[in-house]
Amino acid sequence: MIESLLIANRGEIARRIIRTAKRLGIRAIAVHSEADAGMPFVLEADEAVCVGPANPAQSYRNTEAILAAAKQTGAQAIHPGYGFLSENADFARAVEANGLVWVGPSADAITAMGDKINARNLMAEAGVPVAPGTTDPAATVEAALDAAATIGYPVMVKAAAGGGGMGMAVANDEAGLRTEYDKVRGFAERMFGDGSVLIERYFPRVRHVEVQILGLADGRVVALSERECSVQRRNQKLVEEAPSPAVSPELRERFLAAAVKAGEAVNYRNAGTVECLLDPTTGEFFFLEMNTRLQVEHPITEIIHGIDLVEAQLRIASGEEVEIPLTTSGHAIELRVNAEDPKRFLPGPGAVKTWVEPTGEGVRVDSGYAEGTTVTPNYDSLMAKLIVTGATRDEAIERARAAVAGFEITGPKNNLPFFAELLENAEFLSGDYDTGIVGRMR
User: Fold this and answer.
1) Which residue range or ranges hold the Biotin carboxylation domain (predicted)?
2) pTM above 0.85?
């Protein structure tokens, strides 16, 4: 087993990894920016190293500084968490080139899945359903128009190198495609350094369902249950639940089989997620992307399966066998508590004056902040994940209502009022909702 672990991340996911590392007797090493010097994850680590100023490019994405910190502290392995460098194949290669253990999939798998067009083509070859779309980048707006004419409007215009819901726009007609193509291409060049654009069929009513996979040290790929991720704003997830209320046992088997095929197609190792779009009317689903890292929403899978996914990651990276409980029990819901306006979802950073987390049966809080800390505009607005579980979906929702009411935050803006509204929304309560639910609430 790995004996010392550097966590190349911050906030709640750094605390989450530190918690498991300490339970396993692994020395946990944090890296942090100057702005994060007093944050809980820094104080809870066995050792901490400042790697640069607040700007992520100079700290949490500074590969040279992070590798230097690993050398300085004698770290044996690096866990990237999610975001920042977690899906950076060059960083993964650099970690291993420096004689360290990379807690994640191979750099080749990250590269293969990092480009949406390449990923689509690989999945199609492996027999995983993909939505109608381009097999090569649409290099010009004329090429995009030709593709859309074949696929049929509306279409999704997507940055091929994008991820996490960024670099996406819908075009309903030729005029819209001309406008959105230029916007997405420009955004992709600025954000990802790659302006390649994919044109794909857009489904006006669709659900976002994903499957957790684990590529084991012995070469096998196993799929755990699915997660429902359809409560979104601007293609960014707000609420997830497991299992999905839209997935029947027969459909679940098809989802899991496709996810295993996807992992096997790239010789996947460690934790990953196969994301799909589900047409609730026909029961058809299509590959969306594979996230080659631990997901923000991994706790709900942990709860219903009775597994610690971070521990599984560390054991796989150490070459150890992992017991995977494939049966599930109960229902779990995760609410992403963000520092943002609950109406327009605009960021609202600030100093945390009050921070009181809810407690009680079936309630778990994975938080990155505490009273006296400050949510700065330098990083993602996620402050905490409120995770609730119950024997049934109805019980989980009831506990979620109580937990939301009992979560007290003052200082930065927060979206707890939105969750209180959602948990009374008839469409959400029915379980028959789709990715447009937040727009209909607003």
Assistant:
1) 1-442
2) yes
